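Possible race condition, two jobs.
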Amino acid sequence: MTTTDTATLLAAYDDQMRGAPPTPPTGVTYQQDGPLLRIVGQFRGFVSGPRDLGVEGEALDELIARQKDFFAARGEALEWKTRSHDTPPDLTERLRAAGFAPEERETVLVGRAAGMAVKEPGLPDGVTVRRVTADADMHRIAAMESAVWGQDWSALADDLIGRVATAPDDIAVYLAEADGEVVSAAWLVFRPGTEFASLWGGSTLTAWRGRGVYRALVALRAALAASRGVTFLHVDASDDSAPVLRRLGMHAITTTTPYVWTPSAG
């Protein structure tokens, strides 16, 4: 892909994927504070802005402090989502000075849904994939994620249940099973009013990695997205997932790093 093509994908991402999704899950609200989108009601607070925040210096420090004060009053941690191409360039320096700590950097990838779509991708023997909406399956997915990451991911079940209940046409959740065990899961989130849909999840139990399950879940979601007229798929990918997604036709356009502050750290 040429530099011009990458710039086109990045411009589309900045124009269409930096604002609020159209329908918040049950119990979640979107608020605007100056240039920032603030999301309230998730397991921790979340803020994100446009490519250029349009504030700097003391005004930026005040904007950062307001977010801390807001979520401190709720007793919640706060994630500030940054991208490497954003301005002002000293945003992350000021976040660190305010007590935010960086988590793992991810690569933002964008690809064309039609080029990645496979309606019947190959799966390992004994593995089946199905689209799910039942609460019980969301809890099984959260338990699998907890096992993969060694952390309590139970809040994920509530998030998925809320999304399905609020806007069932905007999310498609898939799980892969073998002998009654959830071995992987992934979901596709549509962004009505844009050319994009996002790929989330994709965690796989260690014993089933490298056997095509992850690739199959990508292909199935790409096929669904393409069938609904989606042009672009977006992923915030870990270092493990990014090489696979590049081989499937996605392109790196920037990186993203969450900066997290907690009331105890503040």
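Job #2 (started ~2 s after job #1):
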Amino acid sequence: MGFTILILERFHEEQRLGKPVQDSMVSAVSNVGQAITASGLTVVGGFAALIFVNFPVISSFGLITVLDTLYSLISALTILPAITALLYSKAKNKKAK
């Protein structure tokens, strides 16, 4: 999903304004997080309806899509910010030396 792209682009915008890494990430997730959550949950709700179809292939597709979207959403809002902040902080520390 494009959730990570939206967060990272907002993060880079905050970085260009000269904010520290952690403040940039907090601002990025705060500004884009609600929209991403609403979008992701809408996709989950739409594909969840397919789970109840009697055709097994369509039902499995619905379940896999719901799980994939939930995983993508949770990862974008939790794991991505932590890893990005960690890597950017390390890169700035190396440049300072």
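Residues 3-90 form one domain.
Logs attached separately.
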